[in-house]
Amino acid sequence: MLALAGCATTPHSPATGDRSLSYAMPQAGGKQIPYRVYLPSAWSPRARMPLVVVLHGYAATADQPFEEAAGKLQREAERHGFVVVSPSGYNGMADYGANLPLPSSLSRSGKPLDTTPQAESALAEADVLNVIDRATRDYAIDSRRIYLMGNSMGMTGVLHLARTQPQRWCAVSASGGPPWPDYPVERLKRLSGMLLVHGGRDTLAKIADSEGLANRAKAAGIDARLQVIPEGTHGDAWTHYLAETFQFFADRDCRNR
């Protein structure tokens, strides 16, 4: 893996492959925030490749999705010609701006709050958007083909960002998230589709919540799909369906939207 923390990158000279990067976050007083990128071997500044943004779960890092997928993110990026980026979400402890109540079972593992929970969540959201803007600039991304996915707390982030900035995303995929019974599904109408994935062995998130969200979205005229992975757990169901998820994204182009 190539480590380029704090290094300026331009579309004219990046090395392809795995890249561990960081940037000075202006909303956090210039604090260095890590993020991870996979740049496929076919990348060039003239290719205008699409971007897949992966949001991790609670108390994790930008590396977690890559570690959980065990090479599958890189493989699918190569197969479809996608750039993949995983933000930290500021400190990895906040829900990307959604401000939903966290389950009482979740612990901060001794990490103190930097600020209020609401401000921390806003910083997590800002970090995601910062990283997307940096990746779009640095890797000459086609802004019409940006896809968003996430598991657990990452699903919360996907749903929040899909409702607040639907114009940014071509399609989204989410798995293992908390209940959101009043989620405004009509906000998803600008998307080309939503794929929900749920593990049959998930003991934390309820399949009824995913079914309810998918059904309400379908009733609103949205191309919403739910895939249950019988052997999937809360943490790994999404990895079992990663090839199909990338194909779902590839089938939704959005260049003519």
TrEMBL record:
Residues 1-20 are annotated as: Disordered. The keyword rRNA-binding does not apply. The keyword Signal applies. Keywords: Signal. It holds the Pfam family Esterase. This is Phospholipase. It comes from Sphingomonas hengshuiensis.
